[in-house]
Amino acid sequence: MGSGRWSDSDWKGYAKASSYTSKSTAEIFNTSGMAKELNPEGVKVRESRDSKDNPNSTALIVGLDVTGSMSCVLDAMARKGLNTLATEVYDRKPISDPHIMCMGIGDAEAGDRAPLQVTQFEADLRIAKQLEKIYLEQGGGGNCYESYALAWYFAARHTSIDCFEKRGHKGYLFTIGDEEPTPYLRVEDIERVFGYKPQADVQMDQLLTEASRQWEIFHVIVEEGNHCRSAPDKVFGKWSAALGQRALHLADHTKLAEVIVSAIQINEGVDSDKVMKSWDGTTAIVVGKATKALSKKAAASSSGLVTL
Predict the structure, then answer these.
(1) Which of 117, 184, 213, 243 could pair covalently with 38 via S-S, beta carbons 3.0-4.6 A apart?
(2) In angstroms, rounded to a whole number, what is the distance separating the alpha carbons of residues 221 and 248?
(3) What CATH code is carried by the domain that includes residue 286?
(4) Where are the alpha helices (DSSP H) in 107-146?
């Protein structure tokens, strides 16, 4: 997957035809249950392959928390963020020929019906159309974390990406949410989501190590979320322990795309102060706060994880 190219003009025409400005969040997204084509059960791999349109493809996963108070993030990504993400990557060129996959992340342990949803890797308006199919379940539970680890698991074991396999360049994986990192994935949850039963629970550290072999992993902490506002020290502390500098603080969810693009730029070698100053007004402030601790390659170890 991944033919075609994103176009700002195509996007504006699509958004106008889709009446985005007049629709509510519930009217934009799927609220009736997980779409069959986004169900990870039985999916062997999602592929990001080079094509005539994108000869040097780079895989980019954006995993969005769709529980509780996080519906605002998905809404903002559909109305504006996805276009900002694609056009700014094209303009700034921190990576070449982006192939974007979006994920919907819920809470498997709490019994969500759709704890993980995965689009294809796409390079044109098809990603916007698939984003709308994400089931806005708004579930979750009282366990203080969501199933962000399902995104790492899928990326590690169910993707095949030419950027890494042909050129040794890792893809980028961003999860976004307001709760703490997933400490482990239970056998029963993996079986329910993917349709097969592993031998044992999979711990967070194991998953991060495995996924980081071919993915640059970041998490964006949404400070406006309910859990982060109620327990900020726990959220920040646990994500920092897991990812170090790659745990990014997002003060304004409407600036998510700008923060993702900026983190990629810095990780690819652009000076963080220069990146911050490339944005205007409040965007520069939000980006500066989110990326102030990042340095070139985010102090990455040889495994791709941050060395604390």
Answers:
(1) 117
(2) 6
(3) 3.40.50.410
(4) 126-131
CA gap 46, 173 in Å, rounded = 14
- Terminal Cα distance for the chain, rounded: 36
Please state whether beta strands 116-118 and 98-105 pair in parallel, antiparallel, or not at all (unpaired). Answer: antiparallel
DSSP 3-state of 202: strand
Judge whether 150 lies within some domain: yes
Whether the CB-CB separation of 276 and 262 falls below 8 Å is answered with yes
* Cβ burial, residue 17 (10 Å; 0-12/13-18/19+): exposed
- Asked if residue 306 is part of any domain, the answer here is no
- Determine which helix (DSSP H) or strand (DSSP E) holds 62, and give its type and residue range: strand 58-65
pTM of the model: 0.95
**Residue 18: inside a domain, yes or no?**
yes
Pair 67, 112: CB distance under 8 Å: yes
| 78-137: pLDDT as tens digits | 999 999 999 999 999 999 999 999 999 999 999 999 999 999 999 999 999 999 999 999
C-alpha span between 99 and 128 (Å, rounded): 12
> What's the total number of domains in the chain?
1
Q: Tell me which DSSP letter residue 192 carries.
A: H
CA-to-CA dists, residue 74 to 167, 205, 224, 276, 283, angstroms: 32, 27, 14, 24, 19
For residues 139 and 46, what is the distance between their CA atoms, to the nearest angstrom? 26
